[in-house]
Amino acid sequence: MGKALGIGGVFFKAKDRDKLGSWYKDTLGFELEPTYGGSSFKHEQAPAGACTVWGPFKEDTDYFEPSTKGFMFNLIVDDLEACLEQVKANGGEIVAEPCEESYGKFAWFLDPEGNKVELWQILNEGKFE
Length: 129
Known about the structure:
Blueprint: H1 17-28, E1 73-76, H2 80-89, E2 93-101, E3 104-110, E4 116-122
Parallel strand pairs: 1-4
Antiparallel strand pairs: 2-3, 3-4
């Protein structure tokens, strides 16, 4: 039996793909590929313990609010506080107070198109304790 080895990408519709891509480039340092307008994150660049989570939520979850979309992005970051300042400076809307768990620090914002984004700074090599 074949099996999945990981998440190969996150793909979504944007009202203005180029503008949103530029916002992520200017705000969080995405390196955009001119051929498809997206960004590739190499696994070897991730901190120790980094992983990609595939996690369906219950249909009635409120975790993605205040976004009205049926998905949320999670981005691994190297400095949560610096990223939040950049998000605020570039017009993103912080939607919850940051919190810390044993496996990382988290914060949430809405991008210019209303997509909810969760930022994750890994602690303790990402071990879920």
